Known about the structure:
The complex is a heterodimer.
Chain A (H helix, E strand, L loop, with lengths): L1 H6 L36 E6 L3 H16 L4 E3 L4 H7 L10 H6 L14 H6 L4 E7 L4 E8 L4 E9 L8 H17 L8 E6 L2 E6 L6 E2 L7 E6 L5 E8 L2 E8 L5 E3 L7 E7 L5 E8 L2 E8 L4 E5 L8 E6 L5 E6 L6 E6 L6 E2 L11 E6 L5 E8 L2 E8 L5 E3 L6 E6 L5 E6 L6 E6 L5 E5 L5 E5 L12
Helix pairs in contact in A: 2-6
Chain B lengths: L2 H17 L8 H63 L3 E2 L9 H16 L4 E7 L8 H19 L7 E7 L10 H7 L1 E8 L8
Parallel strand pairs in B: 2-3
Antiparallel strand pairs in B: 1-4, 2-4
Helix pairs in contact in B: 1-2
Amino acid sequence: xxPVGLLAIVVAVYPSSRLVAQDTSAVDRGVRIGILYxxxxxxxxxxxxGRAPALDxxxxxMARDIDYSDRFELITLPGSDSIRLAAPSPALGPPPAAGTGxxxxxxxxxxxxxxxxxxxxxxxxxxxVAVTPAxxxxxxxxxHDVAGGAVRREVxxxxxxxxxxxxxxxxxxxxxRVVEATLGAPGIEATRVLFVMDGKxxxxxxDGADRRLVSSTDHAxxxxxxxxxxxxxxxxxxxQGHGRLFxxxxxxxxxxxxxxxxxxLDFTPAFSPDxxxxxxxxxxxxxxxxxxxxxxxxxCLQRLTVGRFYDNLSPTYSPDGQRIAFVSxxxxxxxxYVMAADGTDQxxxxxxxxxxxxxxxxxxxxxxxxxxxxxRDVAGTLQVFVLDVRTRAVRQLTSVGxxxxxxxxxxxxxxxxxxxxxxxxxxxxxxxxxxRIRPLLQQSGARLPAWSPRLPETAPSTP
Amino acid sequence: xxxxxxxxxSGLAVAAVAACPGKKPETPAPVSAGPDADSLARAQKAHDDxxxxxxxxxxxxxxxxxxxxxxxxxxxxxxxxxxxxxxxILGTMIHFDYDKAIIRGGDAAVLDQKVAILQxxxxxxxxxxxxxxxxxxxxxxxxxxxxxxxxxxQYLVSHGIDASRVETVxxxxxxxxxPGHNEEAWAKNRRDEVDILxxxxxxxxx
Lengths: 463, 206
């Protein structure tokens, strides 16, 4: 039986160069397979599941997650049957011996636990992931180190029914565990992106599924921003010309206006990493300046910048909470500056040539602290740039169409942004390491994305 | 008019009959009927005259009332027309260059009209909203729209308008009046709008 599966394999060279606007959701229909292990290239991974409908969905979602992580070469086989040939099929029955029984016997035996390691090695897989049912409401995910010929990790996890709104997020979490087990660091699978469309705030899974409205429909919303714990987010709403800030709880969907705001135009909220403080921009007749407010106690409004004849706006905290990058028009056009979190020591952050460099806006500090992404006017359109915090070198990331409002994934290597490269403005995701770009949401008018941190286990997938 | 000679004739005839002796008790009444007929006629005339006068008076009054009502209506309409005209002038938008919040030379005259209207209508309070085109950054445009609104307010205040009568807001690029993606649309969208907050029911022309 196994040779039959192998005969059907089609070999394709994985394009290592930059892929522009590739819709990689086609991967499941694909016949792409890396048969040779090439050192230095991303590890190959194969996902094996049983035949149950829920497991098919698990495999689909997990395969997409793994693919979108841009850290693996996902190995798929022409027919899904051939995958199951390799792993003793759990089918619909009780948990098989494959995943569960063999895990601890990781001795390096070539086909320990029924998994044909040499076969998968020949297919180019460095890792094989077997998903098997465990009881009515759980699965066991076994991550095999194919090269090492051993089970690397075994994770037993509850899996809600396919019809449960929490199903997808549960699979995303499993994908995260797989990434962590193979690469040592968690992925970005269990994350979501907030954005604005038609004056309303929405949230969407990082793989582009499960879009949901999160703001009220009575007032136009702008500038959503996550709290560092992923349990809350903030956004601004227009209330008769004023800009009011709200903090909303993800789990309950309940929101509360931020104290001390309401009678001014407050916008671009940004949580401090400890979640106690909200920095924001406030436009009054003097101009726009950056303030902070203690959202834990609902008090203590502080003004960080004083620019009578220029504007300061769009604060973003460094992940250690010590500094705030922001936009200032003190030199004429808006450019990226930085200051201590208490407003002192304000200085230019992203260098520019006076009179030559275009307006720079929308800074967001990367979660690893090493970079600040922003967009800059280049020849009348906007492009995404990245500032290296240590060297203060600025690198242009995009060049096709208009690209703006970058937001970092928690891995600090993926970024969502708005681009009109397809003809209309929509959300895209770029992997900074491979240059691969994929659409997050193929819908016109989506803007102002904000990528969540890794979402906590307790946050339900629906409000 | 014709009835009068007839009455006189019949009066004479009655008098002639009365002159005959042996006549019945009706006579005294007819005897006095002569002068009574005259007075009746006079009374009738007076009555008719007074009725006519009253009618004339009523007609005059009605005419005057109608005239007065028309006059009031006319003057109300006039006020309305003035208010509308003033509102139109007050609502005239001013426009800006790309990424600028400086009042253009031509728009100073537009703002001068608003100064005059505000001075002529002390109860009037307004709100200026600043708007941007879609080219700049979404969030930066809120700050830019704020600059544009306050630039207009500062102009009004520097020309003697009390700052408390003018509110400013910014909508950035969130409320375009022209959804197009070309310079013509952008030029229209880079603007200040003026709305009346209070005191706009009856506006005087300056």
